[in-house]
Write a structure and sequence with these properties.
single chain, alpha/beta, Rossmann fold, Ribosomal Protein S5, domain 2, four-stranded mixed beta sheet, 11 helices
Length: 458
Amino acid sequence: MAKAKTRYVCQECDAVHSKWNGKCETCGSWNSLNEEAPVEATPKGLSVSKGRKIQFVGLQGQEKRPPRRKTGIEELDRVLGGGLVAGSAILVGGDPGIGKSTILMQAAARLSNNGRVAYISGEEAVDQLRLRANRLELDETSVELAAASNVRDIITTLDNDPPAVAVIDSIQTMFVDNIESAPGSVSQVRTSAHELIKLSKRKGFPVILVGHVTKDGQIAGPRVLEHMVDTVLYFEGDRNHQFRILRAVKNRFGATDEIGVFEMSDRGLCEVSNPSALFLSDRDQEVSGSAVFAGMEGTRPMLIEVQALVAPSTLATPRRAVVGWDNARLSMVMAVIETRCGVAIGANDVYLNVAGGLRVNEPACDLAVAAALLSSLSGIAVPKGSMFFGEVGLSGEIRAVSHTDGRIKEATKLGFKHAITPKRRSQGKTTLKSASDGLKVKELGHMAELALMFDNEG
């Protein structure tokens, strides 16, 4: 019998090499090849023996679907699509210290009121978990804690006595004892996740996996990990700000355009039911360079403050600093302002910030950014009680966006008096109309009309 050869597996792309190299020939990463024992496999093909015949069923089943299990945290349930689905696997990722373990400890404590919850940590000791629970004032709940990282032991325990919900913190610390690579490697993460997910679906309880992220913000380990689970949630936010955004990037049982907003406090993560009012709480006086954008996060309208500072530059290449928005899109809006509106802005240093530590990816923010830039350049403050939304085209036209009514209703609820929006196709030449509740809507068709609002000579 031929001796099995040692193989070298890339920890970045999972490519297999017959010998060690400093650089992976598949993905180009350096020092990523680890030695692993070969996988034993039978040399016989499928033609030797026949498999069993599988049975097909229709879409209409007679089994009653089990109800979703509510976590008791409305923002988390919103992102999950209404609660936890029986037998589902949820992967939660985020930067270190962003609040992953905190929110899961809070969810586990509330879920323990209606069933047994197992919280298994491979990173912290039981005493450390108890200290966190004590800080969050959750030490009186009936969450069952364990510190373990051997997947064989975990599966044996959960198989004999299945919990209502299981939390694994984190999947990168788990290991399967018959694989020789270290915990956190591609093969360990993939195999550990596969065994835990298989047990979850066989026994019918949800399992929540915590995942580390790389410096690029992606969940560490093989990309197939995100394909194996049913739901992938990302915690976003700056640790220097108190706000946290929980966003679903994959959800087999719900929408992927919903977000949950939390505020970090000394008692853990608190739900923010009205984020618009919270993000605008510091707007006490009129200042040039500040505009309010009416954005949409999923089905939820949210008002966000956009701040701009345009200052004379002493550099050969003017500075551009952007926080919370796309740098390339800022350059595009500035080019449109200079070319289509005749406003010289490109020779200045430009600083743009989305207040609250949020990140906006919506093209509808173009009009609010343009208003903030023109306001800062001219020194004229945006009219009090005004909000903006609309997409800017390269020819200077302002294009309509979706969910116009929802954005206007949110602004009206918060006491705004003016809404500067794109022209609706059905409105024809009407540029100003009054809403029934007092909010006036001004519809613009071109960026030149916006520039006139900040004309010092006008």
